[in-house]
Amino acid sequence: GQIVHAAVGDVVGEDAVYTILSWSSGDFRFVGGERSPRHTINKNWEYLLIEGMRKSDEMSLELDKGDIESSELPPVDEQTRLLIKNISSLSDCQGMAIVNTDGEELYRKGDIAKYVDIAFATRFFLRISDLLPEGILSRMEKISFISKDRLVVVYPFRVYIVLLGFNKAVLPRKLEATIENIISRYQV
Hints:
This protein has two domains: 7-65, no CATH class; 92-187, Beta-Lactamase (2-Layer Sandwich), CATH 3.30.450.30. The protein has seven helices and seven strands. The protein has helices spanning 14-22, 45-65, 78-88, 112-115, 118-127, 136-139, 173-187, and strands at 7-8, 11-12, 93-100, 105-110, 143-147, 150-157, 160-166. The strands form two sheets. Strands 4-3-7-6-5 form a five-stranded antiparallel sheet, with helices on both faces. Strands 1-2 form a two-stranded antiparallel ribbon. Helix 1 packs across helix 2 and helix 3 (78-88) packs antiparallel against helix 7. The radius of gyration is 18 Å and the shape is elongated. The relative contact order is 0.15. Residues 61-70 have low confidence and may be disordered.
């Protein structure tokens, strides 16, 4: 059979396939005997696989040669770069910041700084452990709050803090699950 539809959050079609191919691990579900809810892909699966590998090779070459603007890629590990790439591909995400535990902003995309004080949110997230009972912080997955009618979600990620901004007060459950799946995939 052919691939006729793929979706990762709000990203659909070929771009969703390429996003999935960039993941280092994951689960795929093939459903036989059912019609796809949409038809967003017209290319055969062999083309998609080869094109996905070509895009991956080009990105690796650009990174090796330094052709990508240094302002576009933070000085972080490959897992964090993949997180940035995948979260940035979600159209609902209006802004993103990656901050280290010293409060140094390593990466920013979008307009998140217009509606949240990134430094303050990071300090708050890092100091909240003093306010919580022992052991709670190690199980905490995220903190979310509303700032200027926009949702801000703060996640611990590896040795960084990830701040995501959205133009809405509540995320659809499917989008929230996609974000958490991406974060957990690259967390290891």
